[in-house]
Amino acid sequence: QKEVEQNSGPLSVPEGAIASLNCTYSDRGSQSFFWYRQYSGKSPELIMSIYSNGDKEDGRFTAQLNKASQYVSLLIRDSQPSDSATYLCAVLMDTGRRALTFGSGTRLQVQP
Amino acid sequence: DAGVTQSPTHLIKTRGQHVTLRCSPISGHKSVSWYQQVLGQGPQFIFQYYEKEERGRGNFPDRFSARQFPNYSSELNVNALLLGDSALYLCASSFSNEQFFGPGTRLTVL
Q: Fewer C-beta neighbours within 10 Å, C or N terminus of chain A?
């Protein structure tokens, strides 16, 4: 079992729709969760961090965390073609080592 | 404020050679982490340094080493390069939990 799992996609949504990206993690003691966006050929860009159960909103982005289910999600409202990228879920696991563990990413395609 | 900077941008080496990659963190950030990203995968943790001390090491062979300098910049060294070392090498700086990535160094080993 991978430590952080994501559906590789591609997830295709029409422009203006809500894109829903999901991630599960294995370490129940994990406390910090992050979403990064990575355009092709570029480095990951931090877009959201979440530490507590529930929702956290920032503009068109909403991160959702459910520690009991070991599940993190990212919602993108009013999706734009410029949102087309790979979205990486990252978890700071409870190992004492301050290293991020990443999923393989979900490729999102927003169709104009 | 300037973000994380890395050099060089691209590098081509042959098997058996060694390489040094450099990273300067965001001003005020004392922690630097190195990650390797191969195509189609998420970044894999290599090292983390904080205040010039190694704080963590990932599952990479001893051919990989790193250090952090008094100004918090960092170097990643890889010896005896293998074809499988071809990847995007990412440096991330952090002040607390959030890590911010530089543009990366694309290493190609022929």
A: N
